[in-house]
Design goal:
Elements (H helix, E strand, L loop, with lengths): L10 H5 L7 H6 L3 H9 L5 H7 L8 H16 L2 E9 L26 H13 L4 E5 L9 H12 L4 E5 L5 H9 L2 E9 L3 H7 L8 H5 L1 H7 L4 E6 L6 H18 L4 E5 L18 H14 L4 E4 L5 H11 L2 E3 L30 H10 L3 E3 L7
Parallel strand pairs: 1-2, 1-8, 1-9, 2-3, 3-4, 4-5, 5-6, 6-7, 7-8
Helix pairs in contact: 4-13, 5-13, 6-7, 12-13, 13-14
The protein binds iron/sulfur cluster (SF4).
Length: about 375
């Protein structure tokens, strides 16, 4: 596989070279020796990354896991960063067919008042967490930028690191948020295959594939400290999606060398949309994804959410995970305010309901140091 260098190209323009790549044909030629060669190579090429995602590589999962574990400890020590999400609104104008917040879902809609944001912040702060992820559904009308900024100013009093997972913004809007203390952007492309993207995003501004794809570049070029990207596993053949996700992270890491780049690998979970995954992604597949990403990108962070069960999360930690959520809820006001009623207002089902202390105790018992704070913006 011949890969062109990135010379003044956006990720989209650079990745077009892989459009004609037929990974099924590529996988047919992968041999056992190719896998062992990748494991002993010093730096892994893009072609070698794809080799690690091949069906035949599953046979070498144990060897890959050992290499991945070594690289993780070498680059991150035995540390795991903890954060929690705070949902401030579930209003959404998009029709993503896989999400319980989509505009057609008959769920109870809510947007927190600033007093409620302060209440949630006080509770989350009392758990010791100092990193927070602020989420909304995507509605510029219900949650305009000035409202989000007001919420950030309140959260800034309790948290040293604030990431956002909201609608894709223009570069100057990211700049405004960075100025008031936002240091991280989480934005998932959901599915890199453009055709499937169009089929699962029926309407709304999120239908603009390119505007979303280039959001991390816009934010990082304005000085965002961290970018966390992801693909929603279950919408397409996971091997194709993880390949694109991995090279997207590599592109960002190579082009924004001061930034922290991380990856999330959420699997579709039960939610009010009743959407069923189109493609199976088993636990073994997720383990292969984590180790392949770690071996290809030793310095990239890998986040695992509470969509996964407690046992599975614990098993994946040594393979390359660097960040997990704790004390999570996907309900607006779910930490302190929500009292039930109406159809489930969860964005998706949570499988690991443990609180911050339980997660800390679990990590320590496994010889890991839970990190609650590693960044203070000056
Ligand atoms: S995935 Fe995001 S944008 Fe799509 S419906 Fe859900 S909340 Fe809205």
């Amino acid at each position: 596989m011949k890969v062109e260098a990135v010379v003044n190209k956006s990720f989209h323009d650079w990745f077009l070279q892989f459009k004609g790549l037929n990974i099924e044909i590529f996988f047919k030629d992968v041999t056992d020796k190719d896998i062992t060669d990748v494991l002993s190579a010093k730096e892994k090429s893009i072609e070698q990354f794809l080799t690690l995602l091949s069906p035949i590589a599953e046979k070498y999962l144990e060897d890959m896991a050992q290499t991945a574990n070594k690289l993780t400890v070498q680059n991150f020590g035995k540390t795991i960063h903890l954060y929690t999400p705070i949902y401030i609104s579930n209003y959404c104008v998009n029709n993503c067919i896989y999400c319980g917040f989509n505009l057609n879902s008959k769920i109870k809609r809510k947007k927190l008042t600033l007093e409620e944001v302060a209440e949630e912040a006080k509770f989350i702060g009392s758990t010791g967490l100092r990193h927070i992820l602020v989420l909304t559904g995507e509605s510029r009308e219900e949650t305009p930028l000035p409202y989000i900024k007001d919420c950030i100013k309140i959260l800034k009093k309790k948290f040293t690191s604030i990431s956002i997972e909201i609608y894709a913004l223009k570069g100057r809007e990211y700049e405004e948020l960075i100025k008031i203390g936002v240091d991280g952007l989480t934005i998932y492309q959901e599915v890199y295959d453009k055709h499937i993207y169009d089929q699962v995003h029926l309407s709304g501004p999120k239908k603009d594939y390119l505007f979303r794809l280039e959001a991390p570049e816009r934010a990082l070029s304005k000085g965002m400290r961290c970018a966390n990207i992801g693909a929603l596993l279950g919408l397409n053949d996971w091997r194709k999606e993880v390949f694109m996700l991995g090279i997207h992270a590599k592109y960002l890491q190579d082009n924004f060398t001061d930034a922290e780049i991380s990856i999330s690998i959420p699997r579709i979970r039960k939610n009010a949309s009743r959407f069923e995954p189109v493609c199976d992604v088993t636990d073994i597949n997720v383990a292969q994804i984590v180790v392949a990403l770690r071996i290809f990108l030793p310095r990239v962070g890998i986040t695992l959410s509470t969509r996964e069960s407690p046992e599975f999360r614990e098993n994946l930690i040594p393979l390359g995970i660097t960040r997990i959520s704790a004390g999570s809820t996907t309900v607006v006001g779910g930490h302190t305010i929500y009292e039930g009623g109406g159809k489930s207002p969860e964005q998706f089902e949570i499988l690991d309901e443990r609180g911050v202390n339980e997660i800390k105790v679990m990590l320590e018992s496994k010889g890991y140091q839970p990190v609650l704070k590693d960044w203070v913006s000056l």
